[in-house]
Amino acid sequence: MEKFLPLMFAVGGYGAFLAVMAATYQQLPLRVASHFGVDGVANGWASRDSYVWTLIVILTAVTLMMAGTAAIIRITPTNLVNLPHREYWLAPQRREATIGAVERFGFVMAGLTSLLFLAIHLLTVAANESQPAVLSSAVWWLLGAFLAATGAMLFLLYRRFSRVPAGN
Helix or strand or coil: residue 31? Predict the structure, then answer.
């Protein structure tokens, strides 16, 4: 069960994003403030359908790319995989465990990215309910938290593969 938690997190995050997009669709004006300057003031607009479909397409592509990383490693020749000590970690007796670790990383990152998109969308909905449309500065906290989580995940992944057990 534990090995499926990252997959469930990815699917749950993506599903939550889609559900929130559907639930908030009617709250968006026909002309959505969709781009904001660093001060939070709207400086770009899109039609409601264009805004919604652009987010869905981008997140779907990113999710598939992150979740598909392990599948790509499965078919990529070992010498083309950028992994510390790749010969050791991709040796036949360790290959499945290594691919599983990378796969779990990709699923967690896909879930985190879905939740980031969901939160930014909710901030965008709120911004479009005010006149003029101004995005909350909370977006910077969200971005900081996402970058910190990404950094922590990369650190843990690198730490896992940067050391070869003694005697090998």
Answer: strand
